[in-house]
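tool=predict chain=A
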Amino acid sequence: MPAVNAPACCLLERELHLVLVRYARLCDERDWTLIDQVFSADASACYGGWALPDRAAILAMLRNNLGGCGPTQHLLGNLEVRIDGQAVSSRTAVRAAHQGAGPKAAQTYECMGHYHDRWCRTEDGWRIAHRAMVVTLEYGSRTLLGPAA
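tool=predict ok
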């Protein structure tokens, strides 16, 4: 990319970073209202091989996995942004720690991997149009994940 475009690229990276921060807040604070500020209206996803055809399915998956879970922390970093013509995509490292709730409070589950996101510009800003999560490492048991009681 020519040097004259460097400020625009840095601004784009910052804008995408802020959307990723909102995603981490959505998950860790269970603030489901942030879904519209993270994913486009026609978004799709594939989390560890689990295909989610639309934003409603993405939100349902998040609620079903995190709603009954104890505290979580989604750490996102090493953001790499790629621009190919008009197409914008990114790769972000994720480390997500989960603690159980209630009778499962002593259990933990942690996964690490990458989000591969394809982005689209909406009138409200950048949103994830498609997300593919690749899990590369897991500790603990997924059994502590589940919907709210």
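The first strand starts at residue 39 and ends at 47. The beta strands are 39-47, 50-52, 72-84, 87-99, 108-122, 125-140.
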